[in-house]
Amino acid sequence: MTDEHHPVNIPKHTDGSWLALVKESVGADHLVPVHVKVKVSNEFDASLEIKGAKPGSIVVLMRGFEHVSTRNKVVSPKLEDILDPQAPDKLNPTTLGYRGVLAGKPFEIRQRYGRGAKPNEKQGQPYHVVLRWQGQSQVLCRVEGGCDECGWRLIWAGDLDGDGEPDLLMAQEIGMYDEKYSLFLSTRRGKGELVASVSYDSASD
Fold first, then answer.
1. 70 and 58 in contact (C-beta within 8 Å)?
2. Which residue range is the domain that position 174 belongs to?
3. Number of structural domains found in the chain
4. pLDDT tens digits for 131-160?
5. Do 38 and 48 touch, CB atoms closer than 8 A?
């Protein structure tokens, strides 16, 4: 299976063995090992050769702190199946952040500034993006500059192990200048541990 990509969409260390979320034309999403080889023909064209996935599949590759998705899209279950209907569906970036449900448990993504930072002094200050889930807090990334217009929204979630519950989600930060940080978070089945991966800043695309 080969798919064309612009080089900026392919991490430099894509080659190797990956775990992949595979969506075939028929059937549920499932997690399978695949081997990926990047072939760069010139500075504008490159291709991914993926072994282990059937032709026609949509594949999302995940390893460490990088991701790449063939065809530049992912499998998208209905958000109504993931979000708590009682939770706010709009962001409040300066207070509550984003609320939803992950694997049947409520989660919240919010910004956390340093101790002693006053609300009227937060604009432009560095902060951490924190995920709170099952009574635990997980720092996802550090953002060097904040702004009152920044916010988070959930844009995708998926079921890796086929148990009907979402265990992978992606959130996106929209900043004053449209900087975007995507986060992939997953639960390890049976343990409930979180694995966070920060991907890219769209301003560099």
1. yes
2. 79-204
3. 2
4. 676 676 766 556 655 444 455 444 444 444
5. yes
